[in-house]
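Tutorial handout. Part one gives the primary structure; part two gives the three-dimensional structure as tokens.
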Amino acid sequence: MADELVHYDVVGGTATITLDSPHNRNALSAQLRRELSESLDKAQADDAVRVIVLTHTGPVFCAGMDLKEARGAGAGDQGVNEFPKILEQLWTSPKPVVAKLAGPARAGGIGMVAATDIAVAVHEATFAFSEVRIGVVPAVISLTVLPRLNARAAHELFLTGDTFDAKRAVEIGLLNSSVSAEELDGEVARYVKALALGGPKALAATKDLLSKPRPATPVEGFEAMNKLSAGFFASEEGQEGITAFAQKRKPNWVPEV
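Part two.
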């Protein structure tokens, strides 16, 4: 549709969700939030989809909440109230999510980047937690950002609102890599290909494992982790993977490209 702000496309097991509201720097307006959430639901419900790529049109990945819509609204009517659902959809997606940035991200846009599993940006991309500079708090996004960032960097960047580049974003844990504009497509394709080799159920369980609190000591976790591991070794997916390895072929879940 010509008036949609989020496009959805599936090719070869990869669902690409594209923010397309360049007139306001892909700000998180009510329409964009709704369409983005619907696209994430669609991708997660489609068995043919193995990996999700979140990207954008225009020079900016996402500028954060739509401040025009926020102006004059009471606390109960702020668009940010709908944002936790989107971050949760990204963070808990059973299918790996890759963020592809050809430009800057700010505030809530960084929250989405942090909620994905893999994030790649061009060298020229910049980032800033600009909330404090307009008198608000990076509260909701802290729940996805803080697990990624080292503590010293988080204190500095949340409190100052200073802009930082892609190189530093990699150093502090926000991005997996930064590349030239010419290399962006290839770098994302490399991650997508690697992720699609994993068993769908194994990937979902591994994502869940990564998000859970660690036991105080390894000994306290061995019983539960052994049960999980043994169950997957004996599962239909695990047995297919083991058989495929022995037969020197691809498992049946690897998409045909």
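Part three, for discussion. The chain has a mean pLDDT of 95. The radius of gyration is 19 Å.
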